[in-house]
Structures are given as structure tokens and as C-alpha cells.
Amino acid sequence: MPEGASAGVVSTPARGSSMATVTKQFGQPSVKHPSKGGGSAVHPPITRWDYADFSVFFERSTVIDVVVRGAPMPIQNKDELQSVSP
Question: 2, 24, 3: which is closest to 13 by C-alpha?
Fold first, then answer.
């Protein structure tokens, strides 16, 4: 998909939101995966909730990331990309 093109806007939870806020805004997820990690302070528990269009990742009970299904990852460091001639 070309940069700047939109396949449809998906509303997602904001980073830093609580589990309670996500549930209030988006309802119950279709799947709540068990927490992984949590063995120490440097390895906190990470939990994933799946919704129809996206997955939400929590550290303890705070949103740390959201992944939208089918959405390409944003281009990082695009000014470092080099053009290649055929």
C-alpha cells in the first residue's frame, strides 16, 4: 500500500490506557490470552487481548502497544533508504 494511503481507519486504544478503560471503550475482547513473564521487575507480565481488528498488549494493566490486523508497519528511518537503479 502506498505511503499515505488509507485502507480504513481503525479506532484503537491509546498507549497508557488501563485495562478498565479499554474494556469500557471497546467492550470485552474475543480472546484474553494468559499473561507471560512476570518473573521479576525487569520482566513484567505481558498480556494480549484480541479484538476483531486489532490486538492490545498490556504491561501489567497498562497498554504498551496495539497491532492492527492487515496494516503495514510504518516506514522507519525512510530518509536513510537508498534508491536502486534497475
Answer: 24
